[in-house]
Amino acid sequence: MMRYLFPLMLVICPTALAATTPSVLVTTMPVKTGVIERSIAAYGTIGAGPGASDSLTIAYAGIVTRVDVVAGQAVHRGEALAVIGTAPSALAAYAQAAAAVRAAAQTLTHTRALVASHLATRIQLAQAEQAATAAISARDALRLDGSSGTTTTLTAPYDGVIAAVAAAPGAALLPGAPVITILRAHALVATVGLDPRQAARVRVGDRVAITPVAGSERGTLRGSVMAIAAMVNPLSGLVDATISMPPTGFLVGEAVTADIDIGVARGVIVPRDAALPTGRRFVLWQIDKGHAKPIDVRVLTRVGDRAVVSGAIDPALPIVVSGNYQLTPGIAVRVEH
Q1: Which domains does the chain show, CATH number per domain?
Q2: Is pLDDT of 152 > 50?
Q3: b/e per residue, 194-223, with b = 16+ CB within 10 A?
Q4: In this structure, what are the phi and psi dihedrals at residue 88, rounded to the nearest 5 degrees?
Q5: DSSP codes joined into one string, 275-325
Q6: What is the distance between the terminal CA atoms of the chain, rounded to a whole angstrom?
Q7: Nearest-angstrom CA–CA distance, 318 and 270
Q8: Nearest-CA neighbor of 53 among 153, 166, 185?
Q9: DSSP SS3 for 297
Q10: How far apart are CA 239 and CA 230, in angstroms?
């Protein structure tokens, strides 16, 4: 009995083979170049700008009689802020100066009579005239300081906001001691903090969009960078930038967001998540003949949900915008339509 042995043949269907080949479903977009405005967001508060505040003082010893304002209050030019009584010592000094003027005047009159009678010299007359002039000057200086009256009313030199009240009724004041600090209502600035790396990219004159953190019917206002500190603020660890503001109704101490325009970025515009971070670099994926191809890129800026990147990007190959997290170099891809 003869037995025939036939070779065993395994037939594999090409369709079945393709089904076992790993692939990733992705979404793509064509390469698109353009520009996006770059900006840096910073946070800070509204405060007095350079030369925006003044301390109201008195030049003589006094006693606070009345204070009519509180910190944070808006005032108008000429409005009474406080009444200061003249201290007894200041009144006595003025009285002595006035008496010295009268005595010098009498001496001068008497010396002139003596000169006319040839009983005094011209030098003595000059000395008497000099003494009279000095006495008048001393008295007038005290009068200009305000110590000639029993009280003095401090008034607002301009429309502004009371920043601080340094003395309460009954307080004794030394000459030159501040009584009230006032800010000009239309000379405010925003002071914001920048990361030191961000500060290096900001320039004086850059345009800024200022928005109240709490929201406001005023919306966004425009200003510009006035100054950038050359040192780190030891309290915040940030670099302070001073932003000019238009005359508005912003409140002193109000928190704001400042979006600083630092120019434009030109390159390939892609969705924000299209360029994936891999250590210190970013990778963008393109499809070449049905397979994933990684491209090292540099992210120039990110604004909202978009980014501008640069690198050796092939303008003829589509860019993967979703599904890129699953890609490896050379893996087959399926494009979702």
Answers
A1: 22-36+265-335 (2.40.420.20), 40-51+184-264 (2.40.30.170), 53-183 (2.40.50.100)
A2: yes
A3: beeebbeebeeebebbbebeeebeeeebeb
A4: -55, -35
A5: SEEETTEEEEEEEETTEEEEEEEEEEEEETTEEEEEES--TTSPEEEESGG
A6: 64
A7: 11
A8: 185
A9: strand
A10: 8
pTM of the model: 0.55
For residue 130, give the amino acid letter.
Q
The three-state secondary structure class of 334 is strand
Q: To the nearest whole number, what is the mean pLDDT of the chain?
A: 84
Looking at the chain, the whole-number percentage of residues with pLDDT higher than 90 is: 26
Please classify residue 77 by burial: count the beta carbons closer than 10 Å to its beta carbon, then call 0-12 exposed, 13-18 middle and 19+ buried: exposed
| Residue 183 predicted with pLDDT over 80 | yes
Secondary structure of 161-200 in HEC code, one letter for each residue: EEEEECCCCCCEECCCCEEEEEEECCCEEEEEEECHHHHC
Residue 165 near residue 69 (C-beta atoms within 8 A): yes
For residue 143, give the amino acid letter.
R
d(CA 223, CA 208): 5
On whether the CB atoms of residues 201 and 40 are closer than 8 A, the answer is: yes
Beta-bridge partner residues of 207: 224
